[in-house]
Amino acid sequence: MPVVSGCGALKRHFFGLLACLCIGQAWATGDEAQEAPAARALLEKAVARYQQQGDKALAQFSRQGEFVDGERYVFVTDTNGVMLASGGPSVVLIGRDVSSVLDPDLQKAFKKVLQTPESAGIQQAEYRWQNWRDGKVERKRVYFQRIGDRVLAVGYYLPRASPEQARALLDKASRALEQDAENTVQAINSLKGGFLQDDLYVFVVDVDTKRYVAHGTSLRLVNTDFSKVKDPEGKPVGAPILEMIKKQAEGEYEYRWRNPVTSKIERKHAYVRKVGHFLVAVGYYNG
After folding, report:
1. What is d(CA 280, CA 267) in angstroms, rounded to the nearest whole number?
2. Domain holding 75: CATH number?
3. Are residues 98 and 50 located together in one domain of the fold?
4. How far apart are CA 27 and CA 185, in angstroms?
5. Are 169 and 187 part of one and the same domain?
6. What is the pTM of this model?
7. Based on the structure, what is the number of domains in the chain?
8. Residues 75 and 46 sit within 8 Å (Cβ to Cβ)
9. What is the pLDDT of residues 90-112, one digit of tens each?
10. By residue range, what is the domain housing residue 92?
11. Per DSSP, which regions of the chain are E strands?
């Protein structure tokens, strides 16, 4: 088994490679519609093999082969928190009690998973965790099942939020602006108050001055002229949105913009609404 030198090294490996529930992970390379069934299918295959062979299957889970599907892989702990198998980078932690490096809140979540009854079958959980590849905190989903004193799992990151989540965040920001505009603007600019969620964020423009007053990811844009904003290819973004909001209380606009999670230029679909003299917007990315 590879040796990790020192507690600090162990923690770096742990926080880089494990999830807060101490369950295996993979990084989304496509839409969730493809990731979810693929992750679940891999777990079902692993569960069937474990039920047939017991702990003999652990060695199979820990090597490159049929239980590694791209960046999805099987991950196993026992109910005491000891890593037993991993087909991914966390193979370096096999044989170690990984629960000891979790903070108190995450230890509680981990303990709950370990106590899941075997009769519950395949379960799923969603949480936020740091992606070791880019250092950004992202949503993750994991499928897991307990078999005796073993917990088998497969998980993946959810880098793109849904249209429904974008609309919900727009509703939240709109209500907050109506109730307390000054503090809401401050909260958005300070990245607090729940106005930054994965690749979703709020931006606010003063319709009278046409200038940004708040931006959920780029403070350098605050006080700049929104009407002059263009996409990376030079297509106007700010001017047509301002023109649209003159004619209607809310609307939608699609353009290309950098996704703060993937750092790639992607299509973005923005929901826009007028709240008093503010234009408030939230957009989701669709690749």
Report:
1. 19
2. 3.30.450.20
3. yes
4. 33
5. yes
6. 0.57
7. 2
8. no
9. 788 899 887 766 656 556 766 77
10. 6-158
11. 68-69, 72-73, 75-78, 83-86, 123-130, 137-147, 150-158, 196-197, 200-206, 211-215, 250-258, 265-275, 278-285
